[in-house]
């Protein structure tokens, strides 16, 4: 992998943009990110003062890297036919990663995990040599591959995917986990034919139309589609080695060029669009999950508090999308909304579960309402319970208590057990 990275790093250096930076444009209008009227619409053009001469320089650099990537991609090392889960997060993020891995194991997924950490200063002997191996997980030190190259936080995700030993992989943010075994996803459509699955964010895409001039393609029609989130991504490197290298380029130069190009200041601007846009640039197949994501949270004292997102099963999503494309009509719920695929992932991105930090009774999430009652974080999510077959939040809190409070009399454990009894054991 070191030799491969040396070639990739040289290509990144040799074909880096030298033109005027693209950043600070936007934000898009509310109607751009959440149109009131469905139907065809034009992507917003907020980067409207970028000079042709500067664009020509950017295109030359981009074209040069594409040529280099096509040459380097066949050399990408990985273990053929291997499969696993990739995460990034050491140091202060170990607790979040451990939470996700533990919950994934409890949900029935036993795929091996590679957890990428920045350097040996982040290497925790107990975590990496004892706890994680007991969960079929291992620490991989990024600097053992990078050498002296310095990388920023926003580059960890794509480099973890690139450096992973797995051919087929699920990348998970440290605050995301599956609620069921995800192994079948690798063996079914849409993954078999596309090799890349991305999940939706809340907002419509706001890619700069100039990107399509950069790649010499007509502007993609995203009508009815959403922008991407990158809390979970599925890759088959045998299909997408070249687009993964291009995604690396987009992230390497993301803050000064491509992040703003792909979002134009929309909410969540960052690495999240780079993976799909790289596939589009190379005309590679990918599956955009159509099933809408759902906010997870609770009403507390008259205010809705958001804690995370439910993302849906791509196998069921693909079948329903094909059914609808063939003229089928989806069933609707009591609110008149189409019933799409069941949940497969929880992305607890707005309050991160950390097994190494036990909440105390002073924690805002454990506070009481005016009637003196403690509450669930997600209310009672009947849909999630019905469609997964178990109470995921109850399961989450049991996992935290089991992993932190076994035979423990710590004050925090007493507070957490009290919260659990008050909220879950007293429910009808």
Please render the helix and strand layout as text.
Blueprint (H helix, E strand, L loop, with lengths): L1 H13 L15 H4 L18 H21 L6 E10 L5 H13 L6 E5 L7 H7 L5 E5 L1 H4 L9 H8 L2 E7 L3 E3 L4 H4 L4 H4 L1 E5 L9 H5 L13 E9 H16 L1 H10 L10 H8 L5 E2 L5 E7 L2 E10 L1 H12 L17 E5 L34 H7 L3 H13 L6 H15 L3
Parallel strand pairs: 1-2, 1-4, 2-3, 6-8
Antiparallel strand pairs: 4-7, 5-11, 6-7, 9-10, 10-11
Helix pairs in contact: 1-3, 3-11, 4-16, 7-11, 11-12, 11-13, 16-17
Describe what this molecule looks like in 3D.
Its main location: Golgi. This protein has 428 residues and is an alpha/beta fold. The protein folds into 2 domains: 1-289, Alpha-Beta Complex (Spore Coat Polysaccharide Biosynthesis Protein SpsA, Chain A); 358-428, no CATH class. 38% of the residues lie in helices and 16% in strands. The chain has 17 helices and 11 strands. It has helices at 2-14, 30-33, 52-72, 94-106, 125-131, 143-146, 156-163, 183-186, 191-194, 210-214, 237-252, 254-263, 274-281, 314-325, 382-388, 392-404, 411-425, and strands at 79-88, 113-117, 137-141, 166-172, 176-178, 196-200, 228-236, 287-288, 294-300, 303-312, 343-347. The strands form 2 sheets. Strands 3-2-1-4-7-6-8 form a 7-stranded mixed β-sheet. Helix 3 (52-72) packs antiparallel against helix 11, helix 11 (237-252) packs across helix 12 (254-263) and helix 11 packs across helix 13 (274-281). The mean pLDDT is 91.
Main CATH class of the largest domain: Alpha Beta
Number of strands: 11
Protein structure class: alpha/beta
Alpha carbon gyration radius: 22 Å
């Amino acid at each position: 992998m070191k030799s491969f990275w040396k070639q990739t790093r040289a290509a990144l250096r040799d074909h880096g943009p030298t033109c005027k930076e693209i950043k600070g444009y936007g934000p898009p209008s509310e109607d751009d990110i959440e149109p009131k009227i469905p139907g065809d619409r034009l992507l917003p053009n907020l980067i409207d003062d970028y000079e042709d001469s500067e664009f020509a320089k950017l295109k030359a650099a981009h074209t040069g890297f594409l040529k280099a990537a096509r040459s380097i991609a066949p050399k990408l090392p990985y273990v053929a036919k291997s499969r696993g889960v990739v995460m990034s997060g050491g140091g202060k993020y170990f607790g979040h990663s451990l939470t996700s891995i533990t919950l994934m194991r409890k949900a029935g997924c036993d795929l091996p995990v590679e957890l990428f950490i920045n350097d040996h200063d982040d290497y925790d002997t107990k975590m990496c040599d004892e706890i994680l191996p007991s969960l079929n997980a291992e620490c991989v030190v990024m600097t053992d591959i990078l050498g002296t190259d310095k990388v920023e936080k926003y580059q960890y995700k794509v480099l973890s995917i690139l450096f992973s030993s797995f051919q087929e992989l699920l990348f998970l943010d440290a605050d995301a986990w599956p609620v069921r075994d995800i192994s079948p996803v690798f063996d079914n459509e849409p993954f078999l034919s596309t090799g890349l699955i991305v999940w939706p964010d809340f907002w419509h895409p706001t890619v700069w139309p100039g990107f399509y001039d950069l790649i010499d393609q007509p502007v993609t029609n995203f009508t009815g589609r959403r922008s991407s989130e990158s809390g979970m991504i599925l890759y088959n490197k045998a299909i997408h080695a070249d687009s993964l290298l291009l995604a690396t380029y987009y992230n390497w130069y993301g803050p000064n060029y491509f992040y703003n190009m792909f979002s134009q200041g929309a909410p969540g601007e960052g690495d999240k669009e780079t993976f799909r846009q790289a596939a589009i640039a190379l005309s590679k197949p990918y599956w955009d999950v159509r099933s809408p994501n759902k906010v997870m949270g609770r009403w507390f004292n008259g205010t809705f508090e958001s804690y995370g997102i439910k993302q849906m099963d791509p196998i069921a999503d693909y079948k329903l999308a094909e059914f609808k494309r063939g003229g089928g009509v989806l069933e609707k719920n009591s609110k008149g909304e189409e019933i799409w695929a069941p949940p497969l992932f929880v992305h607890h991105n707005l309050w991160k579960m950390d097994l190494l930090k036990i909440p105390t009774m002073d924690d805002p999430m454990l506070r009481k309402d005016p009637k003196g009652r403690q509450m669930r974080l997600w209310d009672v999510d009947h849909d999630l319970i019905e469609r997964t077959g178990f109470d995921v939040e109850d399961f989450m809190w049991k996992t935290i208590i089991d992993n932190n409070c076994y035979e423990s009399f710590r004050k925090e454990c007493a507070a957490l057990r009290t919260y659990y009894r008050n909220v879950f054991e007293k429910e009808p």
